[in-house]
Write a structure and sequence with these properties.
By secondary structure, the protein is of the alpha/beta class. The protein has helices at residues 35-41, 44-50, 64-72, 107-126, 141-151, 181-186, 189-195, 232-240, 248-268, 308-321, 339-356, and strands spanning 15-20, 54-56, 130-134, 156-160, 222-227, 244-247, 281-286, 324-330. Bound molecules: arginine and manganese (II) ion (MN) (2 copies). One of its GO terms (biological process) is arginine metabolic process.
Length: 362
């Protein structure tokens, strides 16, 4: 049963556009690219139609042409040895046409894929549709949030995650770009510094790949919920930029109900539009925010996470605001853990989307 809330920024009939992103280049574990395929095969489209949505889905995005364009425009000698020749379950093994920049892995590929995702998400949002992006790894949020902010420049972001994903090129220890999207969206200094020595070369692929990202996300326009595994460098960045974050400690102290109210009040505080509409919200949900007992099949699980209900409550409450303009469900990895765990994680991914799109308990 779907609730009677009217989405404030969507055109009637309310339309959800599924943006399936089979992409894993922002982290080393194979399989996260299969996440969107499993979510759709589990019946997500049908489930949303049953909630009264008009659903647009014309297949998952294929990023093959991006790889092809990058590899064929590469000025890098294909016979040159690459930085990594690790085991074949390591998706971070670098392509000769996309060698690391500093320690950042697959920088050109991640950047180009996100650039395409940004265009697609922005297009749907400008049409008055709700883009629902299925990851794929969380580096994709550089694309989804760029797209949302292009269409709704006033939007605030609620980032639900065990991790802050705000490392810069200067602070990342892993070089995995899924741990960095927020810093690129904010244009934080550590990125500029690290790319300063990066000389533009003769071919497009050798130019600073992230130049397309407009640093449009203000530190005051994001709130985190669920954090519990934040790197030392990230803690410093959060403090210095006075970024609002509710960790699991806060969820324990206040309960999820108050935490979500505080998050919404924070984003809406000082935000006034003539017509008194609530501020548009982009929800970026990394399933590793949930406890590993709830969502086991994910690449960087951290114990002590959100319960099943806490995760769903966040989605339900955001739906109630009528202000949702963009949704990401990220980091479902159907290649990790046993079949039962995979089914469970995929089912949770689908039910989070349904909750954010108006499914009610009564
Ligand atoms: N989207 C994620 N699951 N991110 C995990 C990031 C882990 C770690 N902080 C890193 O930067 O590598
Ligand atoms: Mn995470
Ligand atoms: Mn994440």
């Amino acid at each position: 049963m779907s609730s009677e809330i009217t989405p404030q920024y969507l055109k009637a009939p309310r339309t959800a556009s599924i943006v399936g992103c089979p992409f894993s280049g922002g982290q080393p574990k194979l399989g996260v690219d299969k996440g969107p395929i499993h979510l759709v095969e589990a019946g997500l489209v049908n489930q949303l139609e049953e909630l009264g949505w008009n659903v647009k889905f014309d297949g998952h995005h294929q990023f093959e042409d991006i790889k092809y364009a990058l590899s064929s425009s590469s000025s890098i000698d294909p016979s040159a040895p690459t930085a990594s020749s690790a085991a074949n379950d390591d998706a971070s093994t670098s392509n000769h046409w996309d060698p690391p920049i500093g320690i950042l892995k697959n920088p050109r590929l991640v950047s180009r894929v996100c650039e395409e995702v940004a265009k697609v998400v922005s297009g749907h949002a400008k049409n008055g549709e709700l883009p629902v992006t299925l990851g794929g790894d969380h580096s994709l949020a550089m694309g989804t949030i760029s797209g949302t902010l292009d269409a709704h420049p006033e939007a605030g972001v609620i980032w639900v995650d065990a991790h802050a994903d705000i490392n810069t090129a200067a602070t990342t220890e892993s070089g995995n770009i899924h741990g960095m999207p927020v810093s690129f969206l904010m244009g934080l200094d550590g990125n500029h510094q690290a790319f300063a020595s990066f000389k533009p070369g003769p071919s497009p692929s050798s130019q600073t790949p992230f130049a397309w990202i407009k640093p449009v996300l203000k530190p005051s326009s994001i709130v985190y919920i669920g954090l519990r595994d934040v790197d030392a460098g990230e803690k410093k960045i959060l403090k210095e930029n006075k970024i609002k974050a509710f960790s699991m400690h806060d969820v324990d102290r206040y309960g999820i109900g108050r935490v979500v109210e505080m998050a919404l009040e924070y984003l809406n505080g000082g935000y006034a539009q003539g017509d008194s509409k609530p501020r548009p919200i982009h929800l970026s949900f990394d399933v590793d925010a949930l406890d590993p007992s709830v969502a086991p099949s994910t690449g960087t699980p951290v114990r002590g996470g959100l319960t099943f209900r806490e995760g769903h409550y966040i989605c339900e409450r955001i739906w109630e605001t009528g202000a949702l303009v963009g949704l990401d469900i990220m980091e479902v990895n159907p290649s990790l853990e046993d079949d039962v765990s995979v089914k469970q994680t995929v089912a949770v991914g689908c039910s989070l989307v349904r909750s954010a799109l108006g499914e009610t308990l009564l």
